Amino acid sequence: MLRRRRSKLQPLLRQRRRDRVALCRVRPKLLLASNSPRRRDLLLEAGFDFEVSASEVAERLDLDLTLGELTALNATRKGMSAARLRPKDVVLAADTLVAIDDHVLGKPRNKHDSVAMLQRLSGRAHEVCSSVFVCHLARARSTSFNEISRVYFRRLSRAKIDNYLRRVNPLDKAGAYAAQGFGSEIIEKIDGSYTNVVGLPMRIRN
Question: Where in the sequence is the domain holding 141, given as residue range(s)?
């Protein structure tokens, strides 16, 4: 009787072991902690399978930090906010800001701000920095990096600025502009990563 019970239990125990091994091999989901359609599109174009869960974290602009430090802080805060809610997932967060004459430009509050920002950038070069933060809280692992590109603007008359703003919503974009879409009308050239200016550097760095 005892041998029969053991013979029945052994297959069940082996199956449980296989189930545990299978569970250990399940890959965590990739979670994009951003509402940006531009970052979403870049990941989709690169073939990533992911979910979107944006965190409600206000971006900081009021600190005496470098462009890289400020974007790194914002990206980390966004990422950790999402990771605390989804600790078993791999969270990717990013932050992009523009700087000219050591002055950081975030997202404009209204059309007046948008016009002022584009007038300031007109005919000049400025820097765009994106910081990326990736973490897997359940395994206490994280990494981060940033990319800086230099963007050269064409000279923009008020009429060109108004025409651009009629076709583009600037209120969700740092510096009040986007490199994609109608960007070629206001951008002369970009030194560095184009996708960095879009909002998520996709180039693999050594």
Answer: 2-198
